[in-house]
Amino acid sequence: MFSEGRWTHDYPIDFVEAKAKNKQMEGGVPLLPYLKKFERIIVIALIVMMAFVILLATIELGWLIIKDMITPPYVLLEIDELLDIFGLFLLVLLGIELISTLRTYLTENEVHVEVVFVVALIAIGRKVIILDVKELSSLTLIGIASIIIALSLGYFFIKKPIQRNGPPEEQKGNQDN
Fold it and tell me: In the chain, what are the helix, strand and coil shares in percent, each to the nearest 5?
């Protein structure tokens, strides 16, 4: 039944009133602020630990380059040494991207999907660089290729602007000339 702008079961009719009631109910959850603080502490701890791991990996990368250059043949690197260096370099880059993702989550409280795709592409690229193709089955190589194609397509569709109603207004003005 309807009386004075309300149902008899006290359901609000207008959405402004419903939103206000919803905000009042959210404020009534006493654990929510503590959970948000806990989440923030965990993300900060993850950033600190990731920064430490990246520092160690960078030191390891520098040591590996120096060690490989001072062993005979001097200054020349063999293929397996180059693959180790590139793999470690991409691992450091992967860590930097993960810190960027965590920092974005900490500041904006959201995860950018495109950054996740970039991290995944770097990780699979690192795997492709360091793996020995001769020891893998053809089915494994097809699987890795499928992952690369899927990630690339996903990244393409995320970065591609969605155009449903034709070109934006500013482009329409340029087309009239």
Answer: 75, 5, 25
pLDDT at 110 over 70: yes
- So what's the pLDDT on residue 161? 73
- Per-residue pLDDT of 131-145, as tens digits, reads 888 888 999 999 999
Of 125, 112, 128, nearest in space to 152 by CA: 125
CA distance 21 to 1: 21
Instruction: Tell which residue, 144, 153, 100, 140, has the closest CA to residue 123.
Output: 144
- The pLDDT value recorded for residue 160 is 82
pLDDT at 100 over 60: yes
Contacts of 111 (CB under 8 A, 6+ apart): 101, 104, 105
Torsion of the alpha carbons at 22, 27, 29 and 32, rounded to the nearest 10: 110
Q: What is the pLDDT of residue 169?
A: 55
What DSSP designation does 28 have? Answer: T
Ramachandran assignment for 54, one of left (phi > 0), alpha (psi -120 to 50 degrees), beta (any other): alpha
Which regions of 59-163 does DSSP assign to beta strands (E)? none
Q: For all residues of the chain together, what is the average pLDDT?
A: 79
- State how far the Cα of 160 lies from the Cα of 168, in Å rounded to an integer: 14
Task: For residue 41, give both structure tokens.
Answer: 């502490």
